[in-house]
Amino acid sequence: MGQFDLIMLGPPGAGKGTQAANVVSDYGVPHISTGDMLRDAVKNQTPMGMEAKRYMEAGDLVPDSVVIGIVKDRLQQPDTAKGFLLDGFPRTIPQAEALDAALGGIGRSVGKVVAILVDEEALVARLTGRRICRTCQAPFHVSFNPPKTVDVCDRCGGELYQRADDSEATVRNRLEVYRAQTEPLIEYYDKQGVVARVDGDQSPDKVYAEIKAAIGPAA
Ligand code: AP5
Ligand code: MG
Ligand code: ZN
To answer: Which residue, judged by its Cα, is nearest atom 20 of ligand 1?
Structure first.
């Protein structure tokens, strides 16, 4: 059980969101992005969003208690029964332990952790040139993955914008936070034997081919 209980792990800009879109359409599992959920809460000025905002703008992690709560709630939705794709969660050891405990409680466990690895300088260029759809959150890039029409989403026609945390200074802090708090999760999941390392420094199609091979055929 839990073969399609998937995690997309990797530094900021590795291509988690880009590849998640492929996985959810081929495997039919819901895309659960804590970054997207938090940005939504900020936009709607919910109490949680108002608390999360300052951490996100600085490129720091939102406190574990907040993020663990939203993921646990989300995993109770019926659409996760056959699996899910977590993007941007877990990001700390306590988050990983909370996830293991929640899944263990329903007889499931993490099926695969796809770790997308990319060289640090490439990440800065990717993030500072990124544009996101306001409506469907699809990521584009001004030079590496340009939309057909400038600032318009190919997928839904929505308007593209630049994320508040994609300035160079904030990107550097996010990369540091990743190294200190999130990278150790690769070793944590290696102990469970579920990590697939993928070379993220190639075209999106080639990256996805490696991911598909790692996950295996859809059910
Ligand atoms: P989150 O939204 O998760 O951001 P992130 O982890 O920093 O990752 P990104 O979304 O920036 O990158 P990505 O890997 O999705 O790359 P993408 O596909 O867009 O989190 C944001 C903030 O929310 C955090 O800083 C934190 O404050 C908070 N937060 C979220 N989750 C949390 C948690 N669990 N705990 C605590 N706090 C949390 O691609 C990037 C760019 O590269 C795009 O322009 C894309 O077009 C381009 N690109 C993609 N693939 C390729 C390729 N193969 N070649 C060339 N370009 C490519
Ligand atoms: Mg993302
Ligand atoms: Zn869109």
So the answer is: 35
Residues enclosing ligand 1, CB less than 6 A?
10, 12-18, 34-35, 38, 55-56, 59-62, 67, 88-89, 91, 95, 126-127, 130, 139-141, 144-145, 165, 174, 203-204, 207
Report pTM: 0.96
Query: Distance between CA atoms of 105 and 88, rounded to whole angstroms?
Result: 22
Could you give the CA distance from residue 79 to residue 207 in angstroms, rounded to a whole number?
27
**Tokens linked to 141:** 């890039």
> pLDDT tens digits for 57-76?
999 999 999 999 999 999 99
**Which residues does the chain have with pLDDT short of 50?**
none
Alpha carbon 185 to chain centroid, angstroms: 14
Q: What domains, with CATH codes, occur in the chain? A: 4-215 (3.40.50.300)
Phi-psi region at 89: left, alpha or beta (left = phi > 0; alpha = psi -120 to 50): beta
Contacts with 217 (C-beta within 8 Å, 6 or more apart), sequence order = none
pLDDT score of 3: 86
Ligand number with the minimum distance to the CA of 138: 3
Q: Take atom 48 of ligand 1 and give the residue whose Cα is closest.
A: 15
pLDDT value at residue 32: 98
- Closest listed residue to residue 111, CA positions, set 99, 94, 93, 127: 99
Measured in Å, residue 136 CA sits from the centre of ligand 3 at 4
